[in-house]
Amino acid sequence: MLIIWGLRVIYRMLGRGVFFCRRCGGDRDYRHRAGRRWITFFFIPLIPLMKTGEHVQCLTCKTRYVTEVLKLPTTVEMEAALATGMRAVVAVILRAGDPASPLARRRAIDAVIGAGDADYDETWLAADLDEPADIARPRIAALGAQLQVEAREWCLAEAIRIAMADGPLSGAERAAAEHLANLLGMTQAQAIGVIALTEQNV
């Protein structure tokens, strides 16, 4: 009688969703699985052995990743965070100066549209300015966490250009810019450099 013993890894599904696949370079569907090695008899799993760990597998390219990859934002989440964060930046800098200034408001609206919110207008700006100031902090911090150094500097420079749309930076606007730099994850030296360079070039 022929007896066939063997070893086999059997996977258990833990979840599905969408993540950013580095190999594909975009958002893709994934499956999250945990594996365990089994002793098989006639290809039937009988005796469980050690666990082989968890992984995330891209359903497009089949690449496997460690589960920490799920902590990274998807492209859609990054785009949403950019627009939401920029709206918060705009509200903070406008409140520090003259929120009624037509030039500053126009510049602010253009900045948010440039960040990806094509529908942003005076109505949305007014609503953002009416929100409590505390709401802006976590949104700006979340934006800064997703940006590279150069992008953080660009974001701060954009805020300064908004503040300077109707004249030189006031003391309150300068303090607000430094506060924004801190929320974005920039050092004080970086903030001073960006503020000075932007003032020279506006």
Automatic annotation (TrEMBL):
Domain Co-chaperone DjlA N-terminal stretches: 140-192
SUPFAM superfamilies from the UniProt entry: TerB-like
Pfam families the record matches: TerB
The species this protein was found in: Trebonia kvetii
Protein name (Swiss-Prot/TrEMBL): Co-chaperone DjlA N-terminal domain-containing protein
Superkingdom per UniProt: Bacteria
Lineage, broadest ranks: Bacteria, Bacillati, Actinomycetota, Actinomycetes, Streptosporangiales
Matches recorded under InterPro entries: DjlA_N, TerB-like
